[in-house]
Amino acid sequence: MxxxxxxxxxxxxxxxxxxxxxxxxxxxxxxxxxARLPRLDQVSDADVHIVGLPFDTGVSYRxxxxxxxxxxxxxxxxxxxxxxxxxxSPFANQQVADCGDLGINPFSITEAIDTIDTAVTGLGEHxxxxxxxxxxxxxxxxxxxAMHRLYGQRIAVLHFDAHLDTWDTxxxxxxxxxxxxxxxxxEGLIDxxxxxxxxxxxxxxxxxxxxxxxxxxxxxxxxxxxxxxxxRSIVERMRRRLIGxxxxxxxxxxILDPAAAPGTGTPEAGGLTSRELLHTLxxxxxxxxxxxxxxxxxxxxxxxxxxxxxxxxxxxxxLTILSGNRAH
Length: 328
Ligand SMILES: N=C(N)NCCCC(=O)O
Ligand SMILES: [Zn+2]
Ligand SMILES: [Zn+2]
Fold this sequence. Notes:
Blueprint: E1 9-11, E2 17-20, E3 48-53, H1 68-74, E4 96-101, H2 109-124, E5 129-134, H3 140-151, E6 156-160, H4 180-186, E7 195-200, H5 208-215, E8 218-222, H6 223-228, H7 231-242, E9 247-252, H8 274-282, E10 289-295, H9 306-326
Parallel strand pairs: 3-4, 3-5, 5-10, 6-7, 6-9, 7-8, 9-10
Antiparallel strand pairs: 1-2
Helix pairs in contact: 1-9, 2-3, 3-4, 8-9
The chain binds 4-carbamimidamidobutanoic acid and zinc ion (2 copies).
4-carbamimidamidobutanoic acid binds at residues 60-61, 137, 163, 165, 177-178, 252, 254, 265-266, 296.
């Protein structure tokens, strides 16, 4: 008789445990882990930690991204072990484990930031990579503080977003989802020659937003550039900017058009298709990705898991890049 308490993980190289076997165990059974991968306590050690950051106290408009981690996990159950676009099995040569969610204070943004910083620094101490599931975009600041501490150098930020998120304050508050990259730049965490936004569009507060952004160390590839230049040329520009050192990848799901990601807090018309985003992420092959986040998934505004599925596939492509790098 089938033992329904045994998820029957697919084995990868050596002792590596991959996904629960979908041929033996229904995908919709069991508590959610990302892609039906093992929990951290089910493996002796992990190369990649997936950690949920359920926090949305930094939002300026629609709340709800605190429920993002659970939604992305629930929408990740159909992911299969082989990435045909990259000819890579991302769970076979690296141990990927789901660490669950951090218990983050929703009433103190500064305490929340410290909690994330401390936990992510701890997770990375033995060389493992962290993939964070947000949460609103505030969480990118403690992620970058942790990366800077772990790697002992400035990190290039590859930021996929409709928004610059280099604004100064909201209601006088310095730590919000519209300000993480300004704080990171001021704190000397980012490589000002190699950081890049992709997907920028929509109304700004003022033309000076762009001048500030450039001064803070970012260059910009706009959403419209996909229409005018095409994805191939964008991948070339992206690689030219990022080459030569560690890269942190931050994906705000609102980079996608609201048609492809309705479940988010500050939607802007005129965004990318999920195909354009996934293709661009595959263009990171061989670059030194040291950490990543996927943020701003707010399930209350989602329909038919459209946004959750897009976010789950973003995570899958990022895990594929990490796996490909490990193979070399
Ligand atoms: N990080 C995200 N998703 N949005 C920032 C929008 C800030 C504003 O209200 O202007
Ligand atoms: Zn955004
Ligand atoms: Zn953002």
